[in-house]
Design goal:
The complex is a heterodimer. Chain A is built from eleven helices and two strands, in the order ααααββααααααα. Chain A is mainly α. In chain A, strand 1 and strand 2 form a beta hairpin. Chain A is globular, with a radius of gyration of 20 Å. Helix content of chain B is 41%, strand content 20%. The chains are: A mainly alpha, B alpha/beta. Chains A and B meet through helix 1, helix 9, helix 10 and helix 11 of A and helix 3, strand 8, helix 9, helix 10 and helix 11 of B.
């Protein structure tokens, strides 16, 4: 284990972390403010990926496809909120889980009907497809470096919106005490639609950035959704700060665990034991972490004030 | 009086015939279980297309009988597969059950079918149990035993004197089997053996580790979506030009349209390829391309062969489906035009067949082609047939 490799793996962890953060930010706000368990958040990630591919094929311009896909996911999110989710706020969590699970099936079949079941071909613009030479010996894919830059920029922007604007104040107030916010004359329904739409757009952003490196196919959102739930539980439900911390922790722990757990175990255990325990433990690591956090701080690391 | 009795007799016979037309003409029913929904539904779609294509070629009459194929979607779940098989056997009274992509589903379905006294024609999964101790006279495969394909890759890489190989596979039963099969024939040095989570999307951490070990070659088994992700990320990391990638069940006709140029140069081993120069195969591939506008995959080729094998069995007993012994004896001869060319069955009903080295090359279309480079094994037997006590 040398220093260069450790640095490279840290970058990998950071990149996974910012992707998780983009997903987690929307999910945690919806959960915290509207008290809604939205399993269909992964579907919005899928919608973002599909829209960007379709729009890129249509327009031939990458920046334009990204912008339109973001707007499209925002619109899809708002429509879903208006049509389906609005009726669920007063229901208990089990009803919400059932209904949003239904939405997952709906979206998966819809994209299969529109684009087929086969994975789509995705590409990235030539200026993002090479590798950067960070310094001698460390080459890093340009595209992944770009993901880190975009993710950090979005985190800063979100921080500004949430802490420095009126909309952010309403969001924070809504996460702490919804009834009081409504009683003060805020149009809470409109706030819900706006928050849900922006959460959807963030998921769409994660999806469209994931397109060229992962597989764009029906059901692509479900795998990532589980990790995102781990992130928001660790960070504290309803807290953007918690989502950021949780995402970075999960990204780092998962990446470093996959990379270094086996060699570390091999120094204390026999090679065969490390061979079988390493991968098994590495894939469980984030869940063990979640259990540990819940045991010490049941409300997560940065609980939203309630 | 006599003519009155005769006309009465004729009338009764005619009425009897009208009531039970089935007596005069037998119908063949085949249950075909595959995965039709979810991300893996793309495999089932290709298998179904190929079954339908085989039926078209036979004029919708398998073995000369009117044929009905009942499709079932196993959702990649062994319990669902078993339920489907039960339903097909009891409700639809099928004569054959065929299909099955996944080894764990196969281990649940095959005994259900053979215990019910019906014939099972597997067209993909080849778990070692069914080739060895649990072999059964009512079970036939038109694919392979799981270990055979990685064995061919191990043999080829050894023959080339390739050493310092980095091995990667998902951490589940088939992943370990593939590596075991590879190591049975690969004699060179293995730098490291890495198992990743099943269904993992991101391999960047593993690719960084891989690069730091400086291997001379990489061998992987990443089926389905995992393969698409791995091949893309391998190319994006700039390793495509520096470390050659050898694989099994990773680059195929289903993943290439999604990966395209990022897969160029990759090596695979397989028992079949669309460019295999066999008349039956050329006919199959040309018809498939004309009908669906893309190349069939090996999943489809095996399923096409499954229907053709059933056709040969039913033809041999002249449509008498009650003569199961006769059908088994006929199938053991593998007397049909297989898309892989002439092959024979081993005692365990697994094909003894050739395995080829394939390479992903630039073709006339923008989706790359898999092109046969050479035969690695000729008439290769699986490694488990000696454990099967079946006597022919």
């Amino acid at each position: 284990m040398n220093l260069v490799l450790l640095l490279e793996q840290t970058l990998n962890g950071l990149q996974l972390g910012v992707m998780l953060f983009l997903m987690a930010a929307g999910l945690t706000l919806v959960f915290g403010i509207m008290n809604l368990v939205n399993l269909a958040h992964g579907s919005l990630y899928m919608v973002g990926a599909y829209l960007s591919v379709a729009l890129f094929n249509l327009t031939g311009s990458y920046p334009l496809a990204v912008l339109l896909a973001l707007a499209g996911t925002l619109a899809v999110g708002m429509i879903v909120e208006l049509v389906a989710l609005r009726t669920l706020y007063e229901r208990d969590h089990l009803d919400q889980v059932l209904a949003t699970f239904g939405l997952i099936l709906f979206f998966n079949e819809l994209v299969a009907i529109l684009w087929g079941r086969a994975a789509l071909y995705t590409t990235m613009p030539a200026w993002l497809s090479g590798q950067l030479e960070l310094f001698a010996g460390v080459r890093y894919p340009t595209y992944r470096a770009a993901i880190i830059v975009v993710g950090v920029a979005v985190a800063v922007l979100l921080w500004y919106v949430v802490t420095r604007t009126r909309l952010g104040m309403l969001i924070r107030a809504g996460a702490s005490n919804r009834t009081m916010v409504a009683a003060l004359g805020v149009n809470i329904r409109l706030l819900y639609t706006v928050v849900f739409g922006f959460g959807a757009a963030l998921a769409g952003l994660a999806g469209l950035m994931a397109g060229p490196i992962y597989t764009v196919q029906p059901g692509m959102g479900e795998d990532v959704l589980i990790e995102v739930f781990v992130v928001i539980v660790i960070g504290g439900i309803g807290s953007i700060r918690g989502a950021l911390a949780g995402a970075l922790i999960v990204g780092m722990v998962d990446t470093l665990g996959r990379a270094f757990l086996k060699p570390i175990l091999a120094t204390v255990l026999s090679p065969t034991a490390a061979e079988s325990a390493g991968p098994a433990l590495a894939s469980m690591l984030i869940y063990l972490l979640m259990a540990a956090v819940l045991a010490v701080r049941p409300a997560g690391l940065f609980p939203a004030r309630g | 009086m006599r003519s009155a009795i005769r006309s009465l007799f004729v009338g009764v016979v005619a009425a009897g015939l009208a009531c039970s037309p089935a007596v005069a003409q037998q119908k063949l029913k085949i249950g075909f279980i595959t995965t039709l929904s979810g991300p893996q539904g793309v495999i089932g779609e290709d298998m179904k297309n190929s079954v339908e294509l085989a039926l078209d070629m036979l004029g919708r009459k398998v073995g000369g009988l009117d044929t009905e194929v009942i499709y079932g979607d196993d959702q990649v779940k062994p319990d669902v597969g078993k339920q489907l098989a039960d339903e097909m056997l009891k409700k639809h009274q099928v004569d054959f059950v065929s299909g099955i992509i996944w080894s764990n589903v196969m281990l649940a379905v095959a005994p259900t079918v053979t215990d019910a006294g019906k014939l099972m024609i597997g067209t993909n999964a080849g778990p070692h149990q069914l080739a060895g101790k649990e072999c059964n006279e009512r079970f036939f495969s038109t694919s392979w035993q799981n270990d055979q394909t990685p064995e061919a890759m191990g043999k080829y890489m050894s023959d080339q004197g390739i050493t310092d190989v980095y091995v990667m596979a998902p951490n589940y039963a088939a992943g370990k089997d593939m590596v075991t099969g590879f190591k049975r024939y690969f004699k060179g040095k293995i730098v490291d053996e890495v198992y990743t989570k099943l269904g993992q999307a991101d391999y960047q951490a593993e690719i960084s580790q891989l690069r730091s070990k400086n291997p001379k070659a990489v061998f992987v088994f990443y089926p389905g979506g995992m393969g698409i992700q791995f091949m893309r990320q391998y190319a994006q990391a700039g390793l495509r030009q520096t470390v050659p990638l050898y694989s099994v069940y990773t680059a195929d006709e289903l993943s290439l349209p999604a990966v395209k140029e990022a897969a160029l140069g990759q090596f695979e081993t397989r028992f079949w390829s669309p460019d295999l120069k066999v008349p039956a195969n050329e006919k199959f591939v040309a018809y498939y391309r004309k009908k669906h506008g893309k190349s069939p995959s090996f999943y489809g080729a095996q399923s096409y062969d499954g229907i053709m094998l059933i056709d040969s069995a039913v033809r041999a007993v002249k449509g008498n489906l009650k003569d199961q012994k006769g059908m088994i004896a006929a199938m053991r001869k593998a007397n049909f035009d297989s898309v892989r060319g002439k092959f024979t069955y081993n005692v365990n009903h697994i094909p003894i067949q050739n395995f080829y080295l394939l390479r992903v090359v630039k073709g006339p279309a923008d989706v790359p082609d898999m092109a046969i480079q050479k035969a690695v094994f000729e008439n290769h037997r699986d490694s488990y047939y000696k454990e099967c006590g079946m006597k022919w």
